[in-house]
């Protein structure tokens, strides 16, 4: 019973603790984390000297002496970064060969993807709305970018650059999780046929490299289809990424389910709940909470694995940048392109990791 109902007195909410941002608190933090003993002090000093030695010339090469504009390769200098091709081909890096008059569709798709982050981080947003948005996002991205209905249908050859990386990574992340739930439940099924089908599928997928499946989907699958039948190559690649990633997630979820006490099932059955109610209202919520770190790690790995589609002829961000720097004029400036790729993937993967940390903090707070 709430306190105010017992005492009949209004309850004044406790003021949040003030954060001490003084110099003394900073010194205390440094003493506790950087200079706690002789070993940590030596490591701190050593790392600090390396940073002081490397950061100034790196900043000078990247920013202060770098060339950001000019006419062709002759405007670049040998001892500084040359960002001219990055700005010159910026639209190619972002949109690939997507038609210029249809780029608004890519912009709307990016906006829908970015909108997912405030929804995911918000604690006031109903979870049902967030789940519905995550379920509908792949459909919206496919209709926007691939086309259909009142939108012009785009061939797979116009997909490239950051747009293709975003398209593959987002849809694969959203759809691989529900598939993995079904696989994890199927592997624990009491029906031998379902259980062995799931076991064989998971073990086979985990034993074969993703690149092999990409080659099979891109080159060999079409050979075994009936004459005149053709499956869109982008759809084949996307299906491979979804079902391969789902096999790894299924093992993560299976371990989380097995870690739950057996009494959870028995108590649920004793209260009259059937199998599906027990799974989806009692078991899976706990299993998903316990497997958040491993799932987030898998999501990050999946997003980085989108670069492998370059091998089968789809030029995502890495492939597009490599293609641009193969031009005779820009040969030898690969470092600038790799820096752009690294920074882009860092921002995306760091954002996913921060969402995972946000989920873990919420889970820890709900346990107290």
Automatic annotation (TrEMBL):
Keyword annotations of the record: Cell membrane, Membrane, Transmembrane, Transmembrane helix, Transport
Cellular component, GO, one term: ATP-binding cassette (ABC) transporter complex
A molecular function GO annotation: transmembrane transporter activity
Positions of the ABC transmembrane type-1 domain: 162-351
Pfam families tied to this protein: BPD_transp_1 (PF00528)
Compartments where located: Cell inner membrane; Cell membrane
Gene Ontology biological process: amino acid transport
Membrane topology value: Multi-pass membrane protein
SUPFAM superfamilies: MetI-like
Transmembrane segments: 34-55, 104-121, 128-145, 157-185, 197-225, 308-325, 337-357
Superkingdom of origin organism: Bacteria
Gene3D superfamilies: MetI-like
Cross-referenced CDD domains: TM_PBP2
Family, per entry: Belongs to the binding-protein-dependent transport system permease family. HisMQ subfamily.
PANTHER family referenced in this protein's UniProt entry, alphabetically: INNER MEMBRANE AMINO-ACID ABC TRANSPORTER PERMEASE PROTEIN YHDY, MEMBRANE COMPONENT OF AMINO ACID ABC TRANSPORTER
Record-given protein name: Amino acid ABC transporter membrane protein 2 (PAAT family)
